Amino acid sequence: MLNKLKKHYKDSITTNFSHQTDYIWFITHTGEPFGIKKSILSDSELKLLSTMFENYKMHTSFSYTSVQQKWKEILSGEGTDDSIEFYRFIHFFSKQPVADYSAFSEAVNGLFPDDAVLLLNEDYLSGVIIETSKQDVNDTPYEALKDMLSTDFYIDLTIYIGSYNKGQNNAKQIYEREREQFLSIKNNLPPKSVYTAADSIPLLLLKDSSSPLIDALTGLLAEWIDEDQETLNSIKVFVECNMNISLAAKKLYIHRNSLQYRVEKFFDKTGIDVKQFKNALIFYMAILALEKNSNK
Length: 296
Known about the structure:
296 residues; alpha+beta; Alpha-Beta Plaits; 3 domains; 6-stranded mixed β-sheet; 4-stranded antiparallel β-sheet; 14% strand
């Protein structure tokens, strides 16, 4: 329904919450808010839309704390703070707008340490959680955050964990670089709750690689492209599971002996022993290159 409305109203319809002035907002039956310019709506159209859809009121009234305001100024390049020693950006992207900021903020604050800082972008579809103290890996609540927001707010969230940084001199550049790099390869990533640099960097390397390098990588698996996709996929999962054959077999829903046979078969035909780290790395880059070419 929303796509049909977009075709009809074209530039006069928006889902961007930063466009508040002169728009009337509605919500579809599937929970998608949209706004239409008041100036182009006749009385009869407005009455029809109000009959078809509920009016939508956003809970956007909130004020930043002094710490949030400080970070907002830093990321916009308008401020500095030499007292900042450590930080990491947790970028998040949503398919649905965050309509109730207060409830969203309360949910995030309940999962993260008190010194974490939440900033929501003007599109209401993305933002960042700034960690200012290092957390143990097992204590990080990123998957819990995605699960909770999906359940309580019906928000389909994608989370990207940035790198550890010291000093805020380059904070703006780091924030923009991480965000732009992740968005540039986001559509090529497999479905996953939380992404890290380990997920994005291989694709970023391939994205900027020369044609000879791509050809060299895809050439390693040329004979397998049409012959045995099942084996290629099995070995990819095996590598992604850190060469743990039991874990990979479980994810593939096959017996570990079947996976062992596929790994040995692959070695016999290619000479690439993916049980060795360097060979596993080369194979993984080669399979990503193949997938990249197939998506063109």
